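Re: folding output
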Amino acid sequence: MSEHDSTYSRRSVLRLGALTFGAAAGAATLAGAGGNLAVAAPAVAAPAPFVNPAPPVSRRFLQSLDRSVALDGWTAQPFSMSQVTLEPSVFTRAQDQALNLARAYPVDRILAVFRRTAGLDTKGANAPGGWEGFGHANEDAWGPDDYPGRANTQTANLLRGHYAGHFLSMVALAYGSTGEAVFKDKVDAIVAGLGEVQAALAATGRYSHPGFLAAYGEWQFSQLEKYAPYGEIWAPYYTCHKIMAGLLEAYHLTGSAQALEIVTSMGEWVHSRLSKLPADQLERMWAIYIAGEYGGMNEVMADLHQITGREDFLATAKLFDLNALVNASAAGTDTLNGKHANQHIPQFPGYLKVYSHTHEQKYFDAVKNFWGMVVPGRTYAHGGNGEGELWGPANTVAGDIGTRNAETCATYNMLKVSRLLYFHTLDPKYMDYYETGVLNHILGSRKNAESSTSPEVTYMYPVHPGARREYDNTGTCCGGTGLENHVKYRDSIYFRSAEDAPGNPVLHVNLYVASTLDWSEQGFEIVQQTEYPKVGASTLVVNGSGPLDLRLRVPRWIQRGFTVKVNGEAQDLAAAPGTYVTVSRTWTSGDRVEISMPLSLRVEPTIDNPAIQALHYGPVVLLARSAATKFLKLSLYASMRLDGSLDTAAKALGDNVFQLGDLTFEPAYSGGSALYHMYFERSEPRIVFAGTDSGVANARRANGTSFLDVVWAEGSFVDRAAFLATVQRTAETFVAEGLLTRRDSQKVLVAAGKAKIA
């Protein structure tokens, strides 16, 4: 028997799905013609307008299909997508645009690159385009051993198939959320199409295992084992992950048995390839720049272990360990500088899932420490990270601003890491980051425009002066994750206590988003009424009766307090920013929980340069509309209030748009197309309090810290007396350091005393 056994039983082939006439004919064509892909792409007629043929199924039925499970070690877990309904908010704009694309986009275009590779009829469909193209005319669907070498052939679109995996995830998520028949029909059609392709590929006898499924031949995987660089190959396991993840979503959210059958056989194929490789070879493979990028292969293999109970799948998940990174991160050693951000972030959800199954502490420590290396020290104001797709030095944000910052995929994956860490730890910082990233970067990455052909999302969401969001990205990695991003906003608004947790049921209210939660298992419906983030308030209406602990997130940006009333009665809660507070009681149907968290304008300096700052309104990052290519300079201390807010500095124009001098600021989530600045440079030449100018220069220390920086270092004051005491203490310090004269010190104290600051 050769190393790659090409003899399959009829049963092993039929297990992958019936070999239809089309699959058999395609296999014959592929084998007889050498599998050459040089077939002219036919023209495609414009799709007919979408008409929904059937009413949605019930949410209770959708919940019965959901096969998602809580993992060992979780103290909180998500609700089924079908249990949460979004009401109109800033998020529903992008959600509705994404759902319209999902309804309209033809399945045959999604399957075209797979069918072409398998020699099947493409049904007149063009490939989606971009990276998801048909490949080079001279390219063949080579097996593991017959690739002629880079010098002897031409290839193109070597990541093809990844976009289809994302689209399958998108329509599965859409069905799990809405119950619309069109989405279930598309899930079933894509799964059936992939099954047909998998069977056709197996029937050729050309590939190493009947579970192989891709939109190109198996040769890329073989070349990776020979350490082929990016350029010759393009991240074959990355594409494999996207296909497997889509199939798992189809299984989890629609109950597709065929999806599970296909993805299980893919898992068997992955195991068959990797289990025979030595550890040092695997380590070298996963460290190769982009070529060794594998997305979340360890996560899908751990998920397959969870579903099937098969130990070989868990063992395969661990074969994706990049030990140098895992061990360094577990030890708290930062080795991220120069690494490709989105090559490595997706590995960490997988490490955490392996931890849930093996309880090996190094995995948990690695994920927890890794997160702390990225947030806040490498994280931009909107939640993104990386420049030119690479991480820079630790604790460097301003110093790593270039022209290609913040790949949207990276934030998509950081949200996954944050969510899983919260399930384990209940640490509020993970959901604070989640709000920043999902509201500003992810929502803001979706253009405010309808399209039936393009996801209309950003690849980069740059942060440099005079930046522009470049939308579309059909077929790119961020175009793929962008298909998913905007149909799953509901998945982290609420969590619940793990099923085996003692005591009252606990509802975690993580995000303030207008929505309705159906928690019928506990006899509750929670209706959240809010215009947040335009208004700093939310009301929860509790329908149902019985004991329940409401765990409410107190955002870290709170400056003016966080208060809670139940049926008009104030609750005595220690609501510190960046925590959760719990309202525990036996509820009566119709009880109302009123949450007040006033929004205010504030600035956040970068971690490495306090002069480079971003303007925020509550959780919202504000962008200055400007085509200038150098940092704008703003003076703001003169407008600071005792609570540290800047509300008097700008005029509110509505919908979180502000006018500050001659600059207009818009919310980062707008989906607009204007040139913008996310950061500005603070310029505070004189010491001024609430518009009262002392006439004294704002002296600076050698490290660049100014007098006013020191005064406002704590961000706010409990009262005017505390403010005046701080000014006096700072003046005395600067005099002692030789940075202020006694006379100038007196001028500063007089100005502070006269200032009408409140």
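--- second protein (sequence, then structure) ---
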Amino acid sequence: MHMGKKKGTTKPARPPKPRRPDDPAKVSYLFGPGFADISRVIRSTTDKARTNIDDMTRAAVEVSEGTTFDSMIVRAGWTACRYVYWLACCLGMVVTSVIYCVGMLLPQTIAFLCYELVGSALCAATWLTDTLFLAILRISNVCDYCHKRFARPVYQCPNCGAKHRDLFPGRYGILHHTCRCGQRLPSSILDRRKPRRKLTALCPYCLAAGHDEIIRSAGSRTICIPVVGGASSGKTSLINAYAVSLITRRAGEHGLTTRFYDEARKQRFATMVADSERGFVDKTAVETDGQRASAFSMSFYLDGGGLRPSRLVQLLDIAGETFVRGDENEQQNQYAHCEGIVLVIDPLAIPQVKARVASGLRGTDAGSISASPLGDVMNALRNDIDANLARNRGKRLTTPLAVVINKVDAAPLLDERLDAPAIARFRQAEPERCANDLDTMDFLCRQFLVDMDMGDVVDMIQQQFAVSRFFAASAIGHTAGEGRFMPRGVDDVIDWIVSLSDPALAKALAIHEFPKTKLPVFTPGIGRFEGIPAEAAQRERDRIAQEQAKADRERAKRERKAPQGHAGAATTSPVPAPVPFTRPGPAPVPPPTPIPSAPEPVSRPAHPAVVPTPPPQPARRQQASPVPMPQAQPIQPAQQPAPQPARRSFRPQRTRPYHRAGTGATPSQGIPAPNEPLPANGARSGTDRRDAQPKVPRPAMPQEPAPWTGQPSVPSPRPRRTRPRRTGNDHDNPHQ
């Protein structure tokens, strides 16, 4: 079966690859003329040898034609001799030419090859040094028209205006290139007398498109930060506040000098200073000229302070109407290489915020509310990023995004939710997680958008950008037109991006270190603005209650350990040792009184030295009738035992019942008979040694009410009686 092409179909032809125009510089001797000279010598020697051989052949033919011989044998011998002679002459000529060529070219070839090797090594080393210098110092240029970044611009000859596209170490020279007009141009950073950066540079992309765009940032590092947002959201005011603060105050305080990109930027800065003094900024005009860029950049250099190379700061501003509609005159290529993106949000443009604060706004603030919905702004930013970046779906962008909620001074609601009062409240409630103001502000801004029904914007930012931080700021600081600029929180926005992209510049400007906490510190959700402080307060109350309960338990424990008579206070005084005594006999019954109301008190004689307290009688003793307490006999001093060392009170333990021989007491009773005298030492017979000494009575422990926990007391459930679980073998085995 024929598997050829289908009839009537043709493969589309590839467009011809554009031929790179020749560079106007002359090629170096090492990469062209040297090899041409060697080839020319070899070619001339070969031609000379060929000419000599032709002459000898022609002469031999002429001689053989003028000579005649009658004998064929002689004629054949003559011809053979002449042929041998001619062949010998030709071989000699070839050998001589080769020897001559080798003898003449060998020294020159060896010298040239050595020179070529050394020159190629120097060229490679210089090219590598130049490339590493540009890469390590991150020297780059950003076109002011097409917004593309590149490291090697096109340089223009100052004499004839020729455009050199490859003014770097290579085939046109190592340290210098020679133009066709004879002008020597520096081609390496090693040339310090005439630096290459002083030449006029052009954008290679614009030059290929037929437009000559001059680049004045050659030899510097460019920091490109686009500022985007809806119309009247405060983008220009934010750029104005940061540029004026950095150029007029902060740079001089840290020993840095500033210079403007060109004369147009210098005039633009003068206008910024005037706007800052009057407290009002005009809207960014929409660019109608198709030959000019829609995005305007405020560009200025920073030098000194150990910065090498100098820094070119570019703050790109584009009209909000143009940004939202997406009808820019040029492709916004800055998103592919910028150091960070600033997204400015006007909170007054959010419907819920506007409904709450519209009645309290002043005339100027009410007239400057952005007309661009926040959702349209986010869609425009996502479309620009997708058009300039070739990234996989689902992969987040690594470019930092600073989201700024501007105009926080316009209404009390914004101040209470986003500014110092809310930050102080959350830092007091959650001191561990809200360890600094910036992290707390980030959560408050996210939570504010969620509460105002803009949670989809927060989710979109979280899904599209790997690094993001929210800020609350006020570019003007008050109502527009009521005095000079008093910005709040503007410097932190750009400083955060600078600290991530250029630590050397951040150190030169003494930018404070931003926390490395994973953001957000809390996951925003509905009602969390009031819920988080309430939960923290409840946890604090629970903690205080637990500490109080613990302190009460410790105090009760100390009171239980204290001896009787000193409740509530710990003591270390020795406890008096128990004194043995003799059981008294039956005492006579006193005569009845006329009016028996109560038994008379028992009088106890006091010992002159020690009056011991008798131990209490066991509560288990059963008596038939109440018997008055007998009068105790005084204890003689001779019978007083020596004091024993103090010992701690121990927990009362149960005594084991015993049987006393000859007393009639049963083991279940465990007590002696009422009328039976005790032994002399006051101890009972038996094996329990704890009964040998009388027990010291424990003090009564005060019963304190348990602390209230806020939950009703529930009686503990009655423990259930469990039975051993049967196994399957009990039923399966018929013999059991």
